[in-house]
Write a structure and sequence with these properties.
Length: about 425
């Protein structure tokens, strides 16, 4: 077998592989002989079909199968011989595939980048710290009560916190725009579910009132054609409803699956859940900062094939997240929606793996056990969850991967300039800009 490799770009390689004709012919002949032993053809006894007849009838298909197997095997042998690491599957192009002649094909593929890790000591990290206060717990309980509120229609003017049912239609420069009309829409005033000025403009209005709301779409609004535009919404209030908050009693506590009988016990459980949420939020934001600077400091080129594969994963996750079933093809989602996030994920993954390899970092068993214990603590039967993780190799490896990431973050923080900043709970739990990536 002859192999030549051409570098066509920083990461792309073209490998030309020539396989001796004898190798193909010998494999074809062996396969023809095997087929002759079992094939049934009218006019011949089983096992007595002449090889010539078998080759005439099945030779083309047999050769195609043999060539496919030879391509796979010889490509694997060639990349080992040339010491290259393909990233993704190769694109195969046949150059010569004639009986009796040497078989030749070209494999085009990308390779993993060679990474030389930059010094991380120049990184400046702002590490947020926070704690759950009694006031935070009280605010959370108020929020939970509002979520369980019942609504009673009232005759008075709408106030902040009320739920109003409205009809509206939006106009820009006197022209109605797509998506700007709705009928019988429920809006909780003060929820900030609408653009700035919309909800506050309804405060003080009664059922039956019709009026114009003058608002401006934010500059970062998702619809490109509406960003920063002044709009008028012709609005009518259909009804106004006031909330009735549930009592803090056993019936209310049971709705959250908590085995508590009094308010103090409920506060303790809510505070514990908030503490877990806070810990995870601070950890995610710190990791996001570290990985963002890691990417910025190490400007590496990443294989397109890996990015495309990650885009496919993100498409599938998006469909699952929004409740899409098998009837929705993830490929319908535009590639551009996920390209930046996919590239960042791949870049972070390659850099993290390089740090793990360069520093011989292995998942700490104690931290793995602690991570499983923490996840299990939110279930009614924690030990069952712990046993399940420990008996499921795939899930256990996922936990180990997360722990390895945490250990990489710790390793990088040792050399970075870290400044601690105390923030309130509400600020701390806000997600980082790149946390999803």
């Amino acid at each position: 077998m002859q192999v030549s490799v051409e570098t066509t770009s920083a990461l792309e390689r073209q490998m030309t592989i020539t396989v001796p004709a004898e190798r193909i012919d010998n494999d074809v002949d062996k396969r023809v002989q095997q087929t002759a032993r079992t094939v049934r053809i009218d006019g011949f006894r089983p096992g007595k079909v002449p090889l010539k007849v078998v080759k005439q009838r099945y030779g083309a298909g047999i050769r195609q199968d043999v060539v496919g197997e030879v391509v796979q095997k010889s490509f694997f042998e060639a990349v080992q011989q040339e010491k290259v690491m393909p990233a993704g599957s190769p694109k195969i192009e046949f150059k010569n595939d004639e009986d009796g002649k040497d078989f030749q094909f070209v494999a085009t593929f990308e390779v993993y980048p060679e990474i030389t890790l930059a010094d991380f000591s120049s990184a400046e990290i702002e590490k947020q710290t926070s704690e759950v206060t009694d006031a935070d717990v009280d605010t959370m309980i108020d929020t939970l009560r509002k979520q369980q509120a019942t609504w009673t229609e009232v005759e008075r003017a709408a106030e902040d916190g009320d739920r109003v049912k409205v009809d509206f239609e939006g106009f820009i420069d006197g022209e109605a725009f797509e998506g700007g009309k709705a009928e019988g829409t429920d809006i909780v005033l003060g929820s900030n579910s609408m653009i700035p000025g919309f909800e506050s403009g309804i405060v003080g209005k009664k059922a039956g009132e019709e009026f114009d709301l003058n608002v401006t779409f934010p500059e970062d609004y998702q619809a490109e054609n509406l960003k920063g535009k002044d709009a008028v919404f012709k609005t009518k209030v259909i009804s106004v409803s006031a909330p009735e908050l549930p009592e803090l009693n056993d019936e209310f506590f049971s709705k959250f699956g908590l085995d508590v009988s009094d308010l103090e016990g409920f506060k303790t459980e809510v505070g514990a859940n908030m503490g877990r949420e806070l810990k995870n939020a601070l950890k995610a934001k710190l990791k996001d900062q570290v990985f963002t600077q890691l990417v910025d400091i190490n400007g590496i080129e990443v294989p397109t094939s890996l990015v495309d594969s990650e885009i496919d994963n993100l498409r599938k996750q998006a469909v699952q997240q929004f409740g899409g079933g098998a009837e929705i093809d993830p490929n319908m989602l535009p590639k551009e929606m996920f390209e930046e996030q996919a590239k960042r994920r791949v870049t972070v993954g390659l850099l993290v793996q390089e740090i793990i390899k360069a520093n011989d970092i292995k998942a700490d068993d104690a931290r793995v056990a602690e991570a499983i214990q923490e996840m299990a603590s939110t279930y009614q039967e924690p030990q069952q969850v712990i046993d399940w993780y420990n008996s499921n190799e795939e899930m256990l490896n996922q936990v180990k991967s997360l722990v390895l990431e945490d250990q990489v973050v710790d390793h990088l923080l040792e050399s970075a300039k870290v400044t601690e900043v105390a923030v309130a709970y509400e600020e701390a739990i806000k997600p980082a800009a790149n946390a999803a990536a």
